[in-house]
C-alpha cells in the first residue's frame, strides 16, 4: 500500500492524533514522529523510512530507532534499536553516516541531530559553581 493512500486512511482517525482547544495544528504521539506534529511528512507510520532518537534507559547516551524500508508488511519487525553510549561526537557522527548511507531524508537528519544533542546535553552532570570569596 502506498504511503499516500495510507495517510488518507489514517489522517482523521489516528490513535496518535492529539487535538487541543483553540490550536489549529494537531499534535501526534507517534513514536517515530520527530516533530510531534500530525502531518504526512513527519508521520512515522506512513513513511517507508523513519528515524527517531530517544534517551537510553540507563540514562547514559541515546537509543537510535529506525524503520526498515522493506518491513512494512511486518510492523513488529520493522523497528530496529541501536544504543549509542559513547561520547557525543561519535554519536552525532554515527547518526550522520547512517542517514547518508541508507538515504534517509536530510530534514530528518537535522531533527535527529538536534534531538540527540539536547538529550546528551541534559544527561551531562551539573558542575557546581565555585563561590568567589
Automatic annotation (TrEMBL):
GO cellular component: ribonucleoprotein complex; ribosome
Keywords, sorted A to Z: Ribonucleoprotein, Ribosomal protein
Keyword set includes Ribosomal protein: yes
Organism for this UniProt entry: Stegodyphus mimosarum
Official protein name in the record: Large ribosomal subunit protein eL28
Family assignment from sequence similarity: Belongs to the eukaryotic ribosomal protein eL28 family.
Residues covered by the Ribosomal eL28/Mak16 domain: 5-122
GO terms under biological process: translation
Any GO MF annotation of the entry: structural constituent of ribosome
Amino acid at each position: 500500500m502506498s504511503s499516500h493512500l495510507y495517510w488518507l486512511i489514517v489522517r482523521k482517525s489516528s490513535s496518535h492524533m492529539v487535538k487541543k482547544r483553540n490550536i489549529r495544528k494537531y499534535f501526534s504521539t507517534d513514536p517515530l514522529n520527530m516533530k510531534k506534529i500530525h502531518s504526512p511528512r513527519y508521520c512515522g507510520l506512513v513513511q517507508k523510512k523513519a528515524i527517531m532518537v530517544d534517551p537510553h534507559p540507563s540514562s547514559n547516551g541515546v537509543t537510535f530507532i529506525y524503520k526498515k524500508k522493506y518491513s512494512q508488511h511486518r510492523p513488529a519487525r520493522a523497528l530496529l534499536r541501536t544504543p549509542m553510549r559513547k561520547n557525543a561526537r561519535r554519536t552525532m557522527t554515527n547518526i550522520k553516516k547512517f542517514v547518508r548511507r541508507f538515504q534517509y531524508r536530510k530534514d530528518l537528519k537535522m531533527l535527529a541531530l538536534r534531538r540527540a544533542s539536547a538529550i546528551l546535553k541534559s544527561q551531562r552532570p551539573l558542575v557546581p559553581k565555585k563561590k568567589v570569596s
